[in-house]
């Protein structure tokens, strides 16, 4: 029984104890240590994950070996290679742990099952997906229109916790700016 | 009665005639001419729109007057300032018509109503939102990791129609590359 998951779902919909217990049975707990991989490139992706504790990063590595950060996930965030997860395809990303993590996993089949069995869960994930869409649109706007300085300030304001838990090299890869530029900015801010 | 909307919804869920008729009643038709605005910056956004015919762009203008393209929308796409729409807030974007358009509008209240009345519609929009999320993640990856040349090639492959209907200046603003760079690329490709 995950109190964190229940609290997270109930920010959007209310559930009875029986409803939550049934939903909860479709999730499995998973522990990984810092540096371990949750998903590796080219694997079939069957699960998405809710983070109870810890921090992860999803990265894409280009042909030259350069790494780009697609997303972070910390407490109460969801993570997967969502394209591969939804489309039953192979991952193009690596997802690894920046800290020891405790996760809840749910398979695509079980996600569809709990959504189809309980209209409230379908609503919950519709709303969560719309929040996710909005957040990505903001990130695109930020990548297109802001200077490295503005981008770093936006990131620090939006995710004050992350700035403390993640190295400067990794933040730079997320923001699409060089490590050197970020160092200059973080001294000033 | 919009055959286009029904066909679009039924790509994901099947509806009876009565169900579709009831859903359809929550949409209103809207016509705008090329160059007209659908949403202007700083307006409250009450509707999202399904495109039956035509082409639109959503743009963000920075303090220096430079314009960035957040999204396009053509036949069978949805468009709005989604952040403002979902959060009942003011638009930060301008949405204008690149061609004469025919749209179906639905208010936030009616969207929630049809989703809550009909589980299939909640499912439809959950799935649509997940597709939207995936598409934006791909765009972020492209902005972070690809050269202007690769980005233009991806765009041309992904949206062959759009390349024919939109000016080079506008495509450049969407891809975050200069008009001059794009001109060099489009001659070569």
From TrEMBL, chains A, B:
It comes from the Bacteria. Residues 11-114 form the Cyclic nucleotide-binding domain. Pfam families: cNMP_binding. This is Crp/Fnr family transcriptional regulator.
């Amino acid at each position: 029984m995950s109190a964190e998951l229940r609290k997270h779902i109930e920010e959007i919909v209310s559930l009875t104890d029986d409803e939550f217990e049934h939903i909860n049975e479709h999730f499995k707990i998973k522990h990984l240590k810092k540096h371990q991989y949750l998903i590796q490139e080219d694997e079939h992706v069957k699960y998405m994950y809710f983070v109870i504790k810890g921090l992860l990063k999803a990265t894409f590595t280009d042909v030259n070996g350069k790494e780009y950060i697609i997303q972070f996930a910390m407490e109460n965030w969801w993570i997967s290679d969502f394209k591969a997860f939804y489309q039953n395809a192979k991952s193009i990303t690596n997802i690894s742990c920046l800290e020891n993590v405790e996760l809840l996993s749910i398979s695509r089949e079980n996600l569809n099952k709990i959504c189809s069995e309980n209209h409230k869960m379908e609503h919950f994930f519709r709303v969560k997906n719309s929040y996710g869409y909005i957040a990505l649109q903001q990130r695109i706007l930020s990548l297109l229109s802001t200077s490295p300085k503005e981008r770093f300030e936006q990131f620090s304001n939006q995710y004050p916790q992350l700035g403390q838990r993640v190295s400067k090299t990794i933040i730079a890869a997320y923001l699409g700016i060089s490590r050197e530029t970020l160092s200059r900015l973080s001294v000033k801010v």
